[in-house]
Design brief:
The protein has 172 residues and is of the alpha+beta class. It contains three helices and ten strands, in the order E-H-E-E-E-E-H-H-E-E-E-E-E. Helix content is 16%, strand content 39%. The radius of gyration is 21 Å and the shape is extended.
């Protein structure tokens, strides 16, 4: 028989996750990191199958996970350096000028998305085999009455993401 104790079921942390306290980092995109204004932890879905019966089909868990895309919004610097980092990555993946350009992209390192609570790192979300699939355009407009700094959105696909706890010294 299973016994449950109400005291052991109580949460140990009573702080809520703040949507404004995060740090985004991709080794291949150092200039995007500083200007990131929004990011998401992508959703995850497990498909399901139906087992037929004479009465009602019974849903059963599937065996394949599907991950939503990682989306980042960032302010574009005046020289477009951070925008050009992603543009160059996409260009290298899509239509490289030579084999070395593609090889350099593949060897650039791993990627991660770091969250903080009360500005102390406590969790890393690590993405494996991350690559950009789309980059929004930039709209210039002389008719604007107030300065709206340019922002861009980039969407990434990846193989999997995992969570890693960061200790007090910042080491995983």
């Amino acid at each position: 028989m299973t016994t449950t104790n109400a005291n052991t079921r109580q949460p140990t942390k009573l702080d809520y996750a703040s949507p404004t306290q995060f740090r985004f980092s991709i080794i291949k995109l150092p200039k995007v990191e500083y200007f990131a204004t929004a990011a998401n932890i992508p959703g995850i879905q497990l498909g399901q199958a139906n087992q037929p019966t004479p009465l009602k089909d019974i849903p059963i868990p599937g065996d394949k996970l599907e991950y939503d895309n990682l989306n980042i919004t960032f302010l574009v610097d005046e020289n477009l350096e951070n925008y050009r980092e992603i543009h160059g990555w996409l260009t290298g993946l899509g239509f490289p000028k030579d084999n070395e350009q593609f090889r350099n992209l593949q060897n650039a390192g791993s990627d991660r998305f770091v969250l903080t609570s009360k500005n102390n790192a406590n969790l890393e979300v690590r993405f494996r085999d991350l690559y950009p699939v789309s980059l929004s355009g930039l709209d210039y407009n002389q008719q604007e009455t107030d300065i709206q700094y340019l922002t861009a959105n980039v969407t990434f696909a990846y193989r999997i993401y995992e969570f890693a706890t960061v200790n007090a010294s910042g080491v995983v």
